[in-house]
Design brief:
418 residues, alpha/beta, seven-stranded mixed β-sheet, four-stranded mixed β-sheet, 17 helices, 49% helix
Length: 418
Amino acid sequence: MSAALSNLLRRLVQKGKLTVVFSSGEKIVLGDGTGQPAAIRIADAAAEKAIVRDPGLKFGEMYMDGRVLIEEGDIFDVLSIIKSNDLANAATFANSIVALGHVLRQQVKSRLPVNRNRYNVAHHYDLDGKLFNLFLDEDWQYSCAYFHPPGISLDEAQRAKKRHIAAKLLLEPGQKVLEVGSGWGGMAMYLAEASDVEVTGITLSEEQLKVSRERAERRGLADRVRFELQDYRTMQGRQFDRIVSVGMFEHVGIGNYGNFFRKMKELLTPEGVMLLHSIGQIYKPWATNPWIEKYIFPGGYIPALSEVLPSVESTRLLVKDIEILPMHYAWTLRAWRERFVARREEAVRLYDERFFRMWEFYLAASETAFLHDKHFVFQLQLSPSLSSVPVSRDYIAQKERELLEFERTRRRLELVAV
């Protein structure tokens, strides 16, 4: 048995019930016995040493490589037990130095004058579209859904998210809208259809660009919805009445918030409104988890609001509204994870077993971040103008009701057409 790993785990796991079988065959049972139990087996001594030295990176890698094996429960159960305890108890002098190295590397990299945005986006979003079809909703919304009212399906919650954002944008027919990070085009098409506006969606993913254009063409929206392979930082000579950005701000990078908001103000008309939807943290994290940064979102960073708002204020953009969605992404990720795991064989055929374990670990770790690390989603409504947004929030619910009626009417017409 690895004495170092055993000691680390005994300090860490005070709550829950986690059974660990070491490569030597020896077994320990950790925690107070409460909650959903889980058990793991570590296949070799080298894996044990790697986890002790760099748990933030190596535990995920060992799971991907099949060297950490689940004996009871699943990887979500294991991570939930770990996250429900105080991770600081697992710190040693050696692994703290390694963790500091990860922080310093990410801090430096985020400030280098090298544009790696295209590479970072392609790493994740240019994967085979069939992968995303395994777990996303019918519109391929790859961001936090809005489960209002509670208990609705994933498809309904993603429609509710689009409806909620559209309501906050205060759209009027004929307005020009910019979507920064347009994904597979669902949000842009919804805004164009529901509010009769012209939308320009920009992305750095060639795969998403291709799919978005094809979808807009099939929906007969190519004259009102245009998609471009475009970095927001190099846009010139254009202004928009509305700007929306959903799930993209996490890729802007620690050192670039000031530049981001200055560019958004430049692209926004004097009476314009912007809606920014992003993941946030309750404290300044300094760096992304090294496993997530290496395998899932290179260059990504989830900020605290205290890191974002000073950059907004420096541009003199007015914060018209801040809304916190505390649990909606946990519910979204659970739906994604359950759908993905249910179609394991298809995922393995697309890639391989290691890729499946990587993606399963990513979805499970992300869900536990919202459950145990208290991550949340925030929506910032911004404008240069004092009078661009009503002085009370009643308009949001009213507009949502109108949009819901539009959706129902459209579905009835679609059924009649069929």
